[in-house]
Amino acid sequence: MSYPQVIHHGAVNTVTGSCHQLSMDAENSLLIDCGSVQHANKSATAEAFSFSPAAVKALLVTHVHHDHVGRIPELLAAGYRGPIICSEPSAHLLPLVMEDQLKLEYGHDVAQADRILETINKRTIAVPFDHWFTLVDSELLVCRIRLQRAGHILGSAYVECDLEYPMEHRSERVVFSGDLGSTHTPLLPAPKSPERADLLILESTYGDRVHADRAARQARLEQIIDQALEDNGTVLIPAFSIGRTQELLYELEDILRSKALVCERSAGAGSADGAVLDWPQLPIILDSPLASRFTKVYQSFSDYWDEPARARLDQGRAPLEFAQLITIDSHAQHLQAVNYLVSTARPAIVIAGNGMCAGGRIVNYLKAMLGDARHNVIFVGYQAKGTPGAAIQAHGPQGGYVELDRERFNIRAGVSTVSGYSAHADQPGLVEFVTGMDQWPAHIRLVHGEASAKKALGNVLLRKYALEHRSVDLLIP
Q1: Both 107 and 178 in a single domain?
Q2: DSSP for 150-191?
């Protein structure tokens, strides 16, 4: 058998369950991610691993979303004894993700959950970006790995694997993209292409789409909130705890600041526009303890933010911890907030999990507010088929209903969608990742995408190569 070989154990025909094995030779292999499979926002029944976890030398984690790390506890239970290698921010985020997951899986066995979490923490090795690290150094094989910023969420990385076969006088560089970030994502810098790749394993989540401009999406968000606040109700924004929530806070802080400046100018001119003057007192409620913990990690790693975001800090601004932000922690406080907003006419914006309304604290807000036309729901993320979020998005504008916890709720609240909030690169971004390399890959495999997205991306890449009179072996596993 000729090495290296890449075997895909997940994220082949879907966008979840990322798990790829790099067999470097007959004795040594690496695992890149070990994620859970998600269907309608619920984990599918996990199958046994189709490889021997005990034979894997190291697990490399690209980022801490569940579909990339959710099966780490199973991997450990199946005999994996090696390190969990990730970026420094991911090493701080991973325990929070795992703790939350283990609480759900081992709710009645706290001691077992703590033991698994302790093992994960002991095995985790944080490495800085843009530095080579040697994992294998023998007469037959030398393996070095390097993590580079992927711009998807804080700490996200793509992985470069340099393999040398001294006895054969040859080398190979294999690159795993992980999830690449959108160029429109605030807070984090966009990913830069690697120098080269002989084999590229490339995600294709939005291989058939072009995202809306970031400036346009913030303007659209502001416009919808302006309209919603005229109803003197609550604006509900379902959002996932990591990535999306921090982006929303960042943009809401900017909107609030611009509104405050307008109010100052209006006050100076003697204007008494009440609609404008409401904004500086508008509470932004973050009702998600996990999102609050993630946000604190984002704040502690501000040196990983992009230049515009760091410039705001230099100006004395607090993009993720501004004066009007109210965080809700305990369940009792959560219920009080729901009751208060329902019983009063005071406008507010609430960000709560989860992003597809299939669970979490957003459900209580929806139960209490969907039947009242004063309130509004704004979706900023993809709503998977079969989830309550998708039902509200589809039937809300027609005055339909949604089932929450097996109970039917009529939808009289306003329902809007703001596009462009994906943290994944779109088709132009994915193509640029390839064509931005000094040496274009001779072999590309498209994973982590639906069939239509992979086909569309593959066709564009083939045309790009043809225009440049380059050859490529493009495979859709």
Answers
A1: yes
A2: --SSTT-EEEEEEEEEGGGTEEEEEEE--SPPPTT-SSSPPP
Q: Does residue 89 sit in the same domain as residue 134?
A: yes
- Our count of domains for the chain comes to 2
DSSP codes joined into one string, 339-361: HHHHHS---EEEEES-TTSSSST
Q: Structure pTM?
A: 0.92
Tokens of 453: 């997205």
Give the range of the structural domain holding residue 102, as residue numbers without chain letter.
Answer: 5-209+423-475
Do 221 and 117 share a structural domain?
no
Q: Are 66 and 96 in contact (CB under 8 A)?
A: no
Tell me how many degrees the CA angle 340-282-349 measures, rounded to the nearest 5. 65
Digit-coded pLDDT (tens) for 206-231: 999 998 777 788 888 999 888 888 88
Verify that 181 and 148 share a domain, yes or no: yes
* AA identity, residue 168: E
Q: Decide: helix, strand or coil at residue 474.
A: strand
Rounded to whole angstroms, how far apart are CA atoms 198 and 193?
A: 14
